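TODO from last week: model MBL fold metallo-hydrolase.
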Amino acid sequence: MCETGSAPEEARASLPRPAPGAAVDPIALEPVDEVEIVTLVDNVYDALLTGDARTRRAGSGTGAVTAPQFEEGRTFAGMVAEHGFSALVTVRRDGRSTTLLFDTGLSPDAMVTNAGRLGLGLGDVQAVVLSHGHFDHVGGLAGLAGKRGVRSLPMVLHPLVWTRRRLAVPGKEPYELPTLSRRALEGEGFEVVERREPSLLLDGSVLITGEVDRTTEFEHGMPPPHQAWTGSGWEHDPLVADDQALVVHVRGRGLVVLTGCGHAGAVNIVRHARRLTGVDRLHALVGGLHLGGPAFEPVIPPTVAALTELAPDLVVPGHCTGWRAQHALAAALPDAWVQSSSGTSYRLTA
């Protein structure tokens, strides 16, 4: 599935595989005192949304920009919304705070623009984590490289993130998706860390899942038009095997799971996180769940049923979740569901 081809054992490693029982060697994910997730980029920006004790919104008075057409010489631009996702994750433990950047949005400037309008400097970012290689999650790397001016920033990703992919919709001319360049990223100073397996970051307080076990009967991945280059031709790429999530254990509350697109399936991802850590309780699920469009709408009912059974305290579906799934989740989990919006922060404490 990657640009240079792959050995048979690499192909087998990307296939769904059973994951019965608890993990043989559970990961000791250290509980944290608090995690704050700031949605830097999402598909939606609503300046009229209200917050609460754990949710802070970027309101209509955010992001002052020069505008000579106004008496004051300025106006408020608010947040940029685009078909992409990016989140700033700050973990607090034992009096220390550390910040990671999870995905970077679609365009080169939306993420850094929104961070600036929120008054958030990106100079404190300790590492970048990429959920997968699709361009609507990595496009902001260009803006980040130009903004920081700091070399050797670690970047954690799956080795299949470099896969060439295209969409070949019947009756339309196929078009190739932009492919991330390792050489370019390393040239800009990013220290690329490739991992298929789970990774522990920040002294064991953040888990990056690596490849997610596909164990449900209903989350089948991408439809046939989504294809990958094998080295000799294009083939259906249903798995997007580089898809991974970020997991934090908030002490006394449970797991906080952050997804980019959730190509592995929201329920598969949560199951995988619970199995790896041995922590059964799902406290929060935030990010894209990829339930939009005709190919994925049949997956909505079993996904909603499974998440309802897990009874999370917070569900913030964003990006590619789709409006039908949003309505279904809001109806099934009215006390947990929260509307996502660019510029919103969620603070979850022990």
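Done. Residues 27-62+78-349 form a domain with the Metallo-beta-lactamase; Chain A fold (CATH 3.60.15.10).
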